[in-house]
Design a protein that fits this description.
242 residues; mainly beta; three-stranded antiparallel sheet; 16 strands
Length: 242
C-alpha cells in the first residue's frame, strides 16, 4: 500500500514535511518519482524512480520534570518537561482509579516549543476547574503525569462532551498512550509567626507590635488579638514570597 504526495518545485528544491503521527512505528520507505508518473502504478515503476530513502518511526516520549516529590497546597510551582512527539501536552492527576485533567493558568493545553520542551511558570495547581486541580488541593500522596494532547483526545471520557474540566482517562489507556507519570506528595504549608515584644510587653504610647513569619502556599493570613475579657480584633495580612 502506498500513500503519495505531489510536491511542487521551488527553484531547485521541493520542500515538504511528513506528519509522522499518522505513520506506524516501523521502518518507512520513501520514494521519489519523476513528474507525470501515475501514483496508481507506483509499484510497477521502479525504472522511473529518482531516489529513495528509508527512516524509522519510533514511539515518542514525554517527561514531566516539575512539579515532583513534594508539593505544598497553594504554592506556586513551574510545570515543565519535554515532549519529543507532541505539539501540545496536558497535565493530569490521579487519585484511586482514573486520571483527571489539571487546568494550568486558565488553560488545559500546554504548548511544546520547537526544542521539544514545555514550561509554565508560577502556577498554583489548586487554582482551576479541572478534576485534577481538586485532587491537588488536599493533603495526600497522588500520581501526577503528562500526556500528548493527541492521545488525550483519543482516550479521554467526559461527563459532559462540552466540558473539558470533566475529562478523565483510565489507567489502562494512560499506559498505552504517550505519557509519563510520577508520584507527588501534597502537604499543607507550615505557618509560623513571631511577635516582637519587650519582656512580653508593648508600650502604651506606641500601641504598635511587629509580627513576621512564614505561610507557605498562602496568599493571606489573619493576625488576631484577644484581650483578657475575650474582646477580639483581627487583621488580614498579605503574604509575600511565603
Amino acid at each position: 500500500e502506498y500513500a503519495y504526495a505531489i510536491v511542487e518545485m521551488d527553484g531547485t528544491q521541493a520542500p515538504g514535511a511528513i506528519e509522522t503521527q499518522y505513520l506506524d512505528d516501523s521502518t518507512i520507505d520513501l520514494y521519489v518519482h519523476e513528474a507525470g508518473v501515475g501514483p496508481q502504478d507506483l509499484a510497477d515503476l521502479d525504472e522511473f524512480e529518482e531516489d529513495d530513502v528509508d527512516f524509522d518511526v519510533e514511539e515518542g516520549d514525554v517527561t514531566l520534570d516539575s512539579p515532583s516529590d513534594t508539593y505544598v497546597v497553594g504554592q506556586e510551582v513551574d510545570v515543565a518537561g519535554t515532549a519529543t512527539s507532541a505539539d501540545d501536552v496536558r497535565l493530569y492527576a490521579k487519585d484511586n482509579n482514573d486520571w483527571e485533567i489539571v487546568e494550568v493558568d486558565g488553560q488545559y493545553t500546554i504548548d511544546v516549543e520547537s526544542d521539544d520542551t514545555f514550561e509554565e511558570t508560577d502556577i498554583n495547581l489548586r487554582d482551576g476547574a479541572g478534576g485534577g486541580n481538586n485532587i491537588l488541593s488536599f493533603e495526600g500522596r497522588y500520581e501526577i503525569g503528562v500526556i500528548s494532547e493527541t492521545d488525550a483526545l483519543e482516550y479521554e471520557d467526559r461527563n459532559d462532551a462540552d466540558d473539558i474540566s470533566s475529562s478523565v482517562i483510565t489507567t489502562s489507556d494512560w499506559t498505552t498512550a504517550t505519557s509519563s507519570r510520577d508520584s507527588i506528595n501534597v502537604v499543607e504549608g507550615d505557618l509560623t509567626a513571631e511577635f516582637v515584644t519587650y519582656n512580653g510587653q508593648i508600650a502604651d504610647e506606641d500601641n504598635i507590635i511587629d509580627v513576621n513569619g512564614t505561610a507557605a502556599g498562602q496568599d493571606n493570613v489573619v493576625v488576631a488579638f484577644v484581650d483578657d475579657r475575650g474582646n477580639t480584633q483581627a487583621y488580614d495580612v498579605n503574604v509575600d514570597n511565603e
